[in-house]
């Protein structure tokens, strides 16, 4: 049965049966994401509630997966996935691309991938980077007492590397702890957690790891304010990374590889290392860089870096800076149509 999303407040919309598509206002969703509250969904619902209603309801904005196109409205395809995602393959056909008045990418990295793969013209697209509500300013816990490391994304993004790396680091540092907020339940796909249950159990069994599973975003944002380091040994090619943007706003040092859109998203503020396809080598590199970062927590060098990264994130990745761009895009498309 198909459903229609009915937006009721600032949280996730209620799901009610209706029709053959998923929509609320001019923003559409699909059957795979109807129960999800990941980064893409937070962007989608956040955009809906902030757009000028006079503009929003006159266009159709499709997030990544095309199901039905409203022929009576200008249509924007807002792409969050990689170019080789099965849901993006229709863009190989130039005639198929003509169905959309504009393609919206979330990073320069992602745009370049599509541009090269599908020979997309510059006039066909714009880049609208992801954004967040800045995390309130706060003081970190005293790192001389305990250094808090956090991992707050789905398990397939490198948790299998982080758990043994952290275990090894516990042999060298007495005052570290790891908080893991990770589950496919964030997408409504809890059955996929079965493949990672051994990792979750290893987290539960470790005396210095706190496994929290899936928690709402407000809970994660509170945890980020207590964290000193966001450890992300990502093996997933990100087109953007909202978890990293939130960590920057929370004044966390970020340790991650120079992979996909992570260098662009973190804008030079992350402590990056060379990505390696061999998991064991990756783990060893990550271990060394994370150890060096742990040693610097609380120093003027790292504190200045994280304070600066918060200022950058709050200025360039906030809804206040992005919504005028979105409203301008919609107005331009509507004016062109008229």
What's this, in brief?
With 338 residues, this protein is of the alpha/beta class. It has helices at 39-50, 53-56, 94-97, 108-118, 159-169, 197-205, 217-226, 242-249, 262-266, 279-296, 300-316, 319-337, and strands at 3-6, 14-17, 22-24, 27-29, 60-63, 75-78, 102-105, 125-127, 147-151, 176-180, 209-211, 229-231, 253-257, 271-273. The strands form 3 sheets. Strands 3-4-5-6-7-8 form a 6-stranded mixed beta sheet.
Please explain how this structure is put together.
The structure is a single chain. The chain is of the alpha/beta class. 38% of the residues lie in helices and 16% in strands. The strands form 3 sheets. It has a 6-stranded mixed sheet. The protein has a 6-stranded parallel sheet with strand order 11-10-9-12-13-14, with helices on both faces. Strands 1-2 form a two-stranded antiparallel sheet. Helix 5 packs across helix 10 and helix 8 crosses helix 11. The radius of gyration is 21 Å and the shape is globular.
List keywords for this structure.
alpha/beta, six-stranded mixed beta sheet, six-stranded parallel beta sheet, disordered N terminus
Itemize the secondary structure elements and their pairings.
Layout: E1 3-6, E2 14-17, E3 22-24, E4 27-29, H1 39-50, H2 53-56, E5 60-63, E6 75-78, H3 94-97, E7 102-105, H4 108-118, E8 125-127, E9 147-151, H5 159-169, E10 176-180, H6 197-205, E11 209-211, H7 217-226, E12 229-231, H8 242-249, E13 253-257, H9 262-266, E14 271-273, H10 279-296, H11 300-316, H12 319-337
Helix pairs in contact: 5-10, 8-11
